[in-house]
């Protein structure tokens, strides 16, 4: 049964809080400035209004989860500390004589919230920032950060063995006799097999799949299909502990196994939208969806800054479709530099190694073909190294995408400097709030962790902005 959030404290609790707790503590500032009452509205359908045992108020449970992600505590640890930590009790609005939730209550509440509801909770916090006038709505920073899966990495041989063990255990629970007979048969056939280890593991796995198919147990079908995907290499399953995790690369030489958090951040430092991606997904392909999330929430921006991994015609057009300017470095700018032909953005011309300037340009395949004077080229001492056999003048191609990037180098450098803010936010998420590694297994559970951790960091940012604004001197009238 739904229980209302306690709006007021007893005189005794209020006196203790004022007496023992520091007035300037960040948690007390959050309690003062952030309204969490929207949680009851978002979770109303999860409770009966009139039947059942009284439950803990949803807002209190969310505040306890907030503490867990704020201090990077496990459910067991935060439930234990809530029993005797006066600061935690004050923040979650539990009186000294109130019972507090145990860790299993937190697990059930978080599971009932689910990822979609947690995303809405994050949106409600962003909306509060908008109502308080904290969102700037100017330059939007976009980037992704890596989250390592909560699972040991397995090679193919270990993975096949683990898959067979899991399938055998499930089979034994349904039909122990047939499973044991199959196990004995496999042991006899493959104990002295001369094949290499991996080939033997693959044959063992295929033999087991054939035996399961012959037994015809429909209860094993889902697990059987997962094992078959591992054997065939299709579907991307590379770990049984966390089958949703995928291999990706932090950079060209550093692989990782897990997920990515893809975020869009306002110039104020408040993250407005988040996506959860598998490790093998490229965040650049999901930029249009992320910007659509921002627009649906009523968030506006004048430019979008991202690294060169987002450089594509589709992404630039998606940004322009929202009336914003793309501030993305070109992937091909380095290639142009190697040609020794320097582009002059102000004049929109090229200068060759012989210090001659292009005399004109003509449209060509989504860009322009810049050409030099035939007279200059024919009289140039470098022409044998510069021109082809049938060329009478030099031509240089420049795409619209690269041209736009080169013409706005100064503002682009400033934008890329501002983009470091989102990297600092990612560092904060990982160093202080545990987002470098997944707490849970499965993409939907990791999504819950991501949304609630970003909620915590947004709340911190909102309070810091409010306090910073309040501390500024008021100009004399």
From TrEMBL:
InterPro entries: IS1182_transpos, RNaseH-like_sf, Transpos_IS5, Transposase_11, Transposase_InsH_N. Residues 243-458 form the Transposase IS4-like domain. Residues 18-112 form the Transposase InsH N-terminal domain. One of its GO terms (biological process) is DNA transposition. Keywords: DNA recombination, DNA-binding, Transposition. Pfam families: DDE_Tnp_1, DUF772. It comes from the Bacteria. One of its GO terms (molecular function) is transposase activity. Belongs to the transposase 11 family. Involved in the transposition of the insertion sequence IS5. This is Transposase IS4 family protein. The lineage of its organism: Bacteria, Bacillati, Bacillota, Bacilli, Bacillales.
